[in-house]
Design goal:
- This protein is α/β, with parallel strands linked by helices.
- It has an eight-stranded mixed sheet with strand order 6-7-8-9-10-11-14-12, covered by helices on one side.
- The model has no long low-confidence stretch (mean pLDDT 90).
- Helices cover 16% and strands 42% of the residues.
- Strand 8 and strand 9 form a beta hairpin.
- The longest helix is centred in the middle third of the chain and has 11 residues.
- The protein has one domain: Metallo-beta-lactamase, Chain A, CATH 3.60.15.
- The chain has three helices and 14 strands.
- It is globular.
- The chain starts with a strand and ends with a strand.
Amino acid sequence: MILAKLTKNNGVELSDKKNTVILEGNEISLNSEKIASSGEYESAGIEIIYGENSALVVWERIQIVSVFNNSEPTVFEKSQFSSCDVLIFGTNELNKETANSLIEAFDPKMIIFSDKSVNDGLLTVLKAQTTTSVKLSEQALSDEGREVFVLE
């Protein structure tokens, strides 16, 4: 099981008992390795595919997409990262139109917002739940509907 929680810099920390992935802006930390450029990376059974506007983290058979900015996903990102299990928004000033476009492109089962990326109107429409952490596992992912969380 992977636990997602907010970092002090309003990023998202993903961790199990052995490994940690930190998603802050367009930088990803995988244990002690920093990743900030396009490519494929792997360590300790965690695979990261870093694109132009987002990255895919594959961990414990869960596909987690982290969005860096409000840009449309590239053709590569749409084809390789969709349909994902979890979509994490770490971008600032996310509006409803952009969020809807990205949600449609990646088609996640679960959405997680860091509190800095939140637009209150958007959260009302998506019926988001505020929490300090979210447990990610294959069993926790809903086959019907879409769960939405805001980390605080």
